[in-house]
Protein: Hydrogenase expression/formation protein HypE
Organism: Kribbella steppae
Amino acid sequence: MAEQVTLPDPAMPDPPDFDGWTCPMPLRDHPNVVMGHGGGGQMSAELIEHLFVPAFANPVLGGLTDSAVFTLGDARLAFSTDSFVVQPLFFPGGSIGHLAVNGTVNDLAMSGAQAAYLSCGFILEEGVELSVVGRIAADLGGAAELAGVTIATGDTKVVDAGHGDGVYINTAGVGLVPAGVDIRPQRAAPGDVVLVSGQIGVHGIAIMSVREGISFGTEVVSDCAPLNGLVAAMLAVTNDLHVLRDPTRGGVATSLNEIAKAAGVGIELTESALPVPEAVANACSFLGLDPLYVANEGKLLAIVAREDGDAVLAGMRAHPLGADAAVIGECVAAHPGMVVTKTAFGATRVVDTPIGEQLPRIC
């Protein structure tokens, strides 16, 4: 209850007004931080909306997009930051070093920007092997080279043994937004088509297979990859892309729900059109998961005007990271703020935002 909450910083001049929050209120139900607050679902949204946004409120932050877009001098810039706490540090298809680059590069790409420079901060736990740190650093450097971005500055801190879980990494990045490009969730409109760049749910299942020691009959390899080249190929078709989003924590379902709410539109998916690889489908069936909620690290969602849909889809399929791109649904005027999917049996089910995360610490 609100009266039982103890603020951790008594010097904070204007503590959050717990009594002013509205339902659902996961933060109010949990006076302490729980794992669900970092899962990308409703609890994360509540934490951001009711604690951080009031503390940091400003017009640039207000958009709450993957990267902030603003003008500095004559340049229109995108700026983003991300922190990486994945376990295990190495997994099929990548490592925390690859994620640290690709996660920030992709966040910038979702506003149409080509990442130019990254910062990199390492938080190391006392006792971690230097060979492990060296391997991660090599992966990070290789990923930066592949993405065409420069690591321009960095920082290193060491915490006591037992307080850091090996290695944490923070990266921040900046890039230029091309003239005429206006990509943001509020631009989704009824009649627009929804595209996905490839098979979904791969990263989350790859992490789970290693972390839990579960074999699904074949190795599932993470899709971790930089998406800036794919976005450039799409912008070469038209610079009037309405929305881009990389569906990481919370998967496709969470990203589309965020877009639907921001734009005030409904989104209808066709279940049979969703590109779910057999290994992911089998793993989700075995574990009782829905592929729509499983994390991705090398896929994007695009919402474009219907008249541009075929051309954008062709441009995506011409790029190696978009070879399996597909149209999976459309934006509609009905049920604004809600995502539904049409099943193979002709029924319609609501695809809601999860409370927390099916599998925490996947990035």
The chain has a mean pLDDT of 89. The CA atoms of residues 295 and 345 lie 26 Å apart.
